[in-house]
Amino acid sequence: MAILLKSLQLINAEKIHPAQDYLIKDGEVILAHNSSGLDSGDNTEEIDCTGLLGSAGWIDLRCMMGEPGLEYKETIQSLGDVLASSGFTKAVVMPNTIPALQSKNEIQYVKAKASKLFTELIIQAAATRDNKGEDFTEILDINNEGVFVFGDGVSPLSNPDRLMKILQYLQKFDGILFDHSYDPLLALFGQMHEGDVSTRVGMKGIPNLSEEIAIQRNIEILKYTGGRMHLQTISSAKSVDLIRQAKKDGLDITADVSIYQLIFSDADLNSFDANLKVIPPFRSTADRKVLIEGLMDGTIDAIVSNHQPQDFDSKHMEFDLASFGMIGIQSFLPAMVLLAEELTWPLLIQKITQGPAHVLKLENSKINNLTIFDPSEKWFFDQKSNMSLSKNTPWFGKELMGKVKYSFNGSQFKRI
Predict the structure, then answer these.
(1) Beta strand 192-193 with 205-206: parallel, antiparallel or unpaired?
(2) Of 16, 144, 171, 196, which residue is 20 to 30 A from 264 by alpha carbon distance?
(3) CA 46, 52, 53, 55 torsion-angle sign
């Protein structure tokens, strides 16, 4: 059956196109041209998309699930449900499960359970055993299962020897290393960004230096080894400068930023809300300004949800004892709505479509997936509407604006 999307405004990296009719047929989105692409015998459903925006399907480069081992935080199915309802047609899942995604057994398990999901899950396999940064996993063996993204997820690869050798291994099959780069010793016991606010509220700070020194080291290693590296959730102004220069030097390096880094700053932690405790922490407004500039000039390739579900007990405690992380998939579109005036829809869409596709080398000239959304629809984020098994978010219990309405992925069309 074909689907005719009437009066849809499609967005790409260049602009928001005028409303036109588009046809979903044979697994592809094409211009309808007054429905001339339809045969008289077609069974066609028409959907009025007046007032709606659409783009190629969204890609999230960083989200976490709890299965296997931590199913009470998020299962593969619940993650798939929240991704699909939030407009994502592809997502990279981190390896921080129990056991870690570090052998053929775990990879095959996840692939089998994810095969029926609407959203395609791309596995980031652990580069070191149990994500501890020491013993290597069977990288070549795991690659035989179709995995090409490796890293330790929320754990930084702080051992330079291991980082260097992983980059060398990955070049055997054009794999890419994802790293959340920071020096854990410089961040030790830190609870928030080190600055005036941390001093005023009496919290041990995490300095920008902890990130910048790790990124500088990793860039130098990449110069030495070659290969592909993707730096995740960068947060400081100097980090942007270092990556910008590395790109000018011709290194195969890319980067992303968590969407909440563009919404909050360290000043928001005056409330001691543990749902705002994340790593890297919310930085200063000056850092945020440079992150915005990095998105605009192409230094930062993608925006990610950095979805990290935590159970109630992990967050409902004193701030300095609470776990890091927040869920961020279902609130992703409302966060983009808040940023749309400053960053524009074409740029935001580019950072969750073409940008991530470039990082993963998934560029495709045809549109075989689609996300359609209403940027002005209001909804209440509460227990009833929440699709995650966790609710560690500062948006919980609030009215948000921006709702995904339809999504198309390959042969599947979803009404949300």
Answers:
(1) parallel
(2) 16
(3) negative
